[in-house]
Amino acid sequence: MPGFPFPPWSIFYQSYGLSLEQAVWLKSLLSLSILICEIPGGLLADRLGRKFSLIAGGGLWIISLLIYGLAGSFGAFAIAEILGGMSASLISGADTALAFDTLLQLQQPEKYCQLEGRLGAISGISEAVCGIIGSLVASVHLTYPFYLQTLCIVAYTAVASTLREPMPHTRNRQRPPGHGENPAPSPDRASPPALADPFFRYLWHRDLSHRLAFPGLHATTRAAIAAFGVAWAIFHSIMSLASLSAAQLAARLGIRTTLALLILLLGGSYLLLASIQQPWGIVFIGVIYAVRGWRSPLTRSYLNQDLESNQRAALLSVDSFVFRGSFAIVGPAIGWLAQTYSLEIALLSFGLLLLATSGFCWLKLVHWRVI
Question: 57, 45, 92, 83: which is closest to 319 by C-alpha?
């Protein structure tokens, strides 16, 4: 779903007297809320239906946005983040499971990676447009974008109510693009469907990309609020183009090389952001968004290929569960570093941590012949 709230959350929170550390704590609370509700939300989607989960998640999302628009304290924002986390846990996994099972029913599961790439591109363009509109509206009043977003989620919930549940299917063994070069899996290696693949733990970078990088842009350039809308549009356009090319990238380089490249690009971008104190350093924020665009189609396609239909939403929730758990731990620590020392120290620390953990996980996946 496109989002109207403008990119730099730090500006919104600062307008209510909150510090950067408090802002990170709020987003960590969101992650913790999702962490607690993530797997139960996936199980609920598999039992009561993905359509039910999408509608219920949309309803909680609306309440969360209205609290943000009408309230103005840390406590109220904390409640909104908790409700937002419950909403995300209901939607997470259910939307992907519904889409993939629909393709299975149409006997076109091999098209999922391309479909996910196109959806990512559409989402990125929508985010770009909404970012510009949201930033312009926020320059008038900081709460107005939340009301626009509420209307957007009302429309989303209405559309979700018209969806039809596909029939359940058994496991599908076709591999996504880029897996043909890998040797046959050995019988003693860890199974990809178990979602114990530690590589997916590196995905917790995705929210920090703008929670750390955008405040850095603001501190460096002193840009006006409306200018963030332009940057938001550019970055999401980059993410859209990357999403469209994800399947081709994996088919050309292979999944193993592609994932290694994404790790290096991502970790290196954070290190360079910490080192470069010039406005042109925002180029590396664009690289981070490109990695986000490539990541989603590849990893979701990879996971979906080996999951049973009646467990798909629950197991997909584990991916998000790992990410949220990581952010709930790392987020406050990074926020403390930014508040106590500097944003540059926080970015440097996160980049090194990301390279170390992601590199270790990639080596393990290669050793287990998962990729």
Answer: 92
Answer whether residue 185 shows pLDDT above 70. no
Burial code (b: 16+ CB inside 10 Å, e: under 16) for 322-340 equals bbbbbbbebbbebbebbbe
pTM exceeding 0.70: no
Q: What 8-state DSSP symbol labels residue 196?
A: -
Tokens encoding 57? 């998640």
Do 46 and 310 form a contact (C-beta atoms < 8 A)?
yes
Q: 54 with 358: CB under 8 angstroms? A: no
Distance (Å, whole) CA 30 – CA 9: 14
The CA-atom distances, in angstroms, between 291 and each of 35, 193, 263, 297, 310 are: 24, 24, 9, 11, 31
Cα–Cα dist 36/333, whole Å? 20
Cα 115 vs. chain centroid, distance in angstroms? 17
Residue type, position 158, single letter: A
The contacts of residue 340 (CB under 8 Å, 6+ apart) are: none
24: closest CA among 194, 157, 215? 215
All structural domains of the chain, each given as residue ranges with its CATH number in brackets, are 9-169+188-367 (1.20.1250.20)
Written as one letter, the residue type at 215 is: P
User: What's the mean pLDDT when you consider all of the chain?
Assistant: 78
User: Is pLDDT of 217 > 70?
Assistant: no
Query: Quick one: DSSP state of residue 184?
Result: P
**Rounded to whole angstroms, how far apart are CA atoms 140 and 138?**
5
